[in-house]
Structure formats: structure tokens, C-alpha cells
């Protein structure tokens, strides 16, 4: 059996190497920064990596404006959600929101169902966090959904819901103030909280994964006051899967996961202590993730197929696969050098 695994491992390695060599592509050239708003507006900021601020026709970019600085916003602080008209470079105010932060803004997304005119964003109404669908041309609110969104599907028909009140007490700069959701601060792994899938047309919601389901797959929380939280949820390019980070305070243990949007096939991406941060999907099977190996932060190319990882740091290249075993790794992972021709400055996709 071990011989079969070893043969399979090396067969997979050569297939990946040949396929990757054929698909190598250099990173695109990056221009110098281009100013898109006039001077005089100091506190303008866009959204976050993984969130597209641009309308499909590139005429508008969603931007937040606020006078708050040098502190975390409270429920009394408003931000103005607006557009930058790329034809005139003017800032066009749309509405105000109190459900926002400096990291991810108010989660404003363009909806692919109407990618040049309709957005969704988070707000607080009557003491509860909600998401609002708005036509930016008419400035009319088309729908108010009773849940805040933490990510939107590529087709603009679904969104994920997470707990921003729980984020407020665990990762303050990513949560919202005001208690618009039940944070359950005394429950480490709530059964009734986690990630939910929201149908933007019907408003129906269903669970994807609960904190309780993650308990056996994340590092033990040893601090008596520690609790788990979820953030950074991102749909795959085809919309069939989610990537997310499960973390715990106060030790900030981080575990990277993928899961099908229907809640099936929950997978850990890495062994313990690798963490995960600053990532993006390449398609429905592969991601580029920043993670830790031997305490060093590296960019890792991760494939859900056979738990294969390409990574590099400094002069070291490696492929890791869950099909074999190695003394250096945990949970059945092993290391194989990447062919020299793949190089360290090229992106595989």
C-alpha cells in the first residue's frame, strides 16, 4: 500500500510539473498609482482584497468617505458610501451607513445580475445589521435583507452571512459596533452560528457550517476566556465553494478551510500552525494563499485535488501532497522539490 501511494505521489508530481510548465504565465506589469479623486478629500477608502470595487464597465468605483480617524469607528459614526465617476473623477455620494470598518468597509459589492448599476452593502437599521440592495443610478433601495453579508457569489445571486458582532469582540477592526447580532461571547463553538448562505432574490437563508462542526478540526483553545470566530469568507470563481479562516482568541490560532456552498466536503487546507491569510481563488479548485511554514510567511499555491501545494520562499521551491508521508510534516503531508524551470517568480494558473 505504501509503495502504491509513493508511486501515485510521484506520478502526480510529474503530471503536475508537465501541466504547470505548459501553463506558466508571468505576473502582469503593474502601472504607477493613478489618482482617481481630486485633492481635499483625505479620508476616502475602497473595500478589501477579494472585493471588486469596480463596475463591470469601469465607469464607477465604490468608495467610503468618513471624518473618523486614528480610532475604531463606533455605532455612532457614519461613513458615506459613494461612487467615483472615472470619467470626471468626482465623488458621488449615495447613502450613509453605520455598519462599516476600515478593513472591509461596508462590504459593498457590485451584483453580477446588474453589474453596472446595482450594489449590495451592509447597514444598521432599527438596531440590527442588514444588507441593502441599491440601484446606484436611481439611488433607490431595491431590497433590505435582515442579515449582513460577508461575501457575494460571482453570479450575484447569493451571499454568505457571518457574525459581525462576534468579530467585534474577537477581531475588533473587522466587526461592527452596536450589537446588531448576537455575539454569544460566552460560547466557544456555538451550534447555531457560523457561515450561512443567503439567497438574494428570495431572502431565504440556510446554514453552511457551524462553529460546533469546526471544533474537532481546529487547535484546542487552552485559554479559559478564548472563543472561536470566522472571517474572510470568499466564493470560488465558479461560485461552488467557499474559502474561510477560523480563528480563536487570545492566541489567534488560524485554520484555513474550504467547503462546498451546500455545506459538504469541509476540508482543512494545511496542517496545524500554518495559518492562512491574504488569498484568492484561481478557479474552483485552486487558490493562492499566504501561510506559514517553519515560522516563515510564504505564498502557497493550493489545489483541492489530492491536497497538492506549490510554494516558494527565498531559493527554496517545494510541492507538498497529502498522498505520502514524511517526518517533516503532519497529517500525511510530504515535500517534493518543484522543477527548476517553474521558478519562484511565476504564477501557476
In short:
With 349 residues, the protein is mainly beta. Helices cover 9% and strands 39% of the residues. A hairpin with a 2-residue loop joins strand 7 and strand 8.
Would you count the extended β strands for me? 24
SSE class = mainly beta
Distance between the termini: 32 Å
Helix content: under 10%
What value does the average pLDDT take?
82
Residue fraction in strands: 35-45%
Q: Rg to the nearest angstrom?
A: 21 Å
SS summary, helix count: 3
Strand order of the largest sheet: 18-19-20-21-22-23
Give the overall shape. globular
Largest sheet: 6 strands, antiparallel
Order of helices and strands: HEEEEEEEEEEEHEEHEEEEEEEEEEE
Keywords:
single chain; 349 residues; mainly beta; six-stranded antiparallel sheet; four-stranded antiparallel sheet; 3 helices; 9% helix; 39% strand; globular; disordered N terminus; disordered C terminus
Could you explain the architecture of this structure?
The chain has helices spanning 2-22, 164-170, 211-214; strands at 24-26, 44-45, 60-65, 79-85, 90-97, 109-110, 118-125, 128-135, 140-145, 151-152, 158-161, 194-199, 205-210, 227-235, 241-249, 253-260, 267-268, 277-281, 286-293, 296-303, 308-313, 316-321, 334-336, 346-348. The protein is mainly β and 349 residues long. The strands form 6 sheets. It has a 6-stranded antiparallel β-sheet, with no helix packed on it. Strands 2-3-4-5 form a 4-stranded antiparallel β-sheet, with no helix packed on it. A 4-stranded antiparallel β-sheet has the order 6-7-8-9, with no helix packed on it. The longest helix has 21 residues, at 2-22. The chain starts with a helix and ends with a strand.
Amino acid at each position: 500500500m505504501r509503495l502504491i501511494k509513493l508511486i501515485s505521489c510521484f506520478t502526480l508530481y510529474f503530471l503536475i510539473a508537465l501541466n504547470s510548465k505548459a501553463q506558466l504565465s508571468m505576473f502582469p506589469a503593474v502601472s504607477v498609482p493613478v489618482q482617481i479623486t481630486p485633492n481635499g478629500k483625505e479620508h476616502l477608502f475602497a473595500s478589501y482584497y477579494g472585493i471588486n470595487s469596480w463596475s463591470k464597465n469601469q465607469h464607477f468605483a465604490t468608495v467610503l468617505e468618513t471624518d473618523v480617524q486614528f480610532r475604531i469607528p463606533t455605532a455612532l459614526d457614519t461613513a458615506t458610501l459613494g461612487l467615483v465617476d472615472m470619467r470626471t473623477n468626482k465623488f458621488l455620494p449615495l447613502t450613509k451607513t453605520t455598519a462599516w470598518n476600515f478593513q472591509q468597509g461596508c462590504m459593498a459589492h457590485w451584483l453580477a445580475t446588474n453589474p453596472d448599476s446595482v450594489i449590495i452593502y451592509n447597514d444598521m437599521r432599527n438596531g440590527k445589521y442588514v444588507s441593502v440592495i441599491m440601484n446606484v443610478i436611481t439611488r433607490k433601495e431595491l431590497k433590505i435583507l435582515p442579515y449582513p453579508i460577508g461575501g457575494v457569489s460571482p453570479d450575484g445571486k447569493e451571499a454568505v452571512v457571518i457574525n459581525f458582532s462576534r468579530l467585534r469582540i474577537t477581531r475588533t477592526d473587522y466587526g461592527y459596533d452596536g450589537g446588531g447580532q448576537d455575539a454569544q461571547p460566552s460560547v466557544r463553538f456555538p451550534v447555531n452560528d457560523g457561515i450561512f448562505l443567503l439567497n438574494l432574490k428570495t431572502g431565504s437563508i440556510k446554514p453552511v457550517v457551524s462553529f460546533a462542526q469546526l471544533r474537532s478540526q481546529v487547535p484546542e483553545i487552552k485559554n479559559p476566556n478564548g472563543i472561536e470566530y470566522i472571517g474572510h469568507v470568499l466564493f470560488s470563481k465558479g461560485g461552488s465553494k467557499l474559502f474561510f479562516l477560523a480563528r480563536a482568541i487570545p492566541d489567534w490560532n488560524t485554520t484555513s478551510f474550504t467547503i462546498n456552498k451546500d455545506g459538504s466536503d469541509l476540508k482543512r487546507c494545511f496542517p496545524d500552525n500554518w495559518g492562512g491569510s491574504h488569498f484568492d481563488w484561481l478557479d474552483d479548485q485552486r487558490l493562492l494563499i499566504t501561510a506559514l511554514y517553519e515560522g516563515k510567511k510564504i505564498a502557497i499555491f493550493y489545489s483541492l485535488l489530492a491536497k497538492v501545494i506549490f510554494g516558494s520562499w527565498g531559493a527554496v521551491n517545494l510541492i507538498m501532497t497529502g498522498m505520502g508521508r514524511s517526518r517533516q510534516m503532519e497529517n500525511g503531508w510530504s515535500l517534493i522539490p518543484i522543477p527548476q524551470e517553474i521558478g519562484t517568480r511565476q504564477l501557476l494558473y
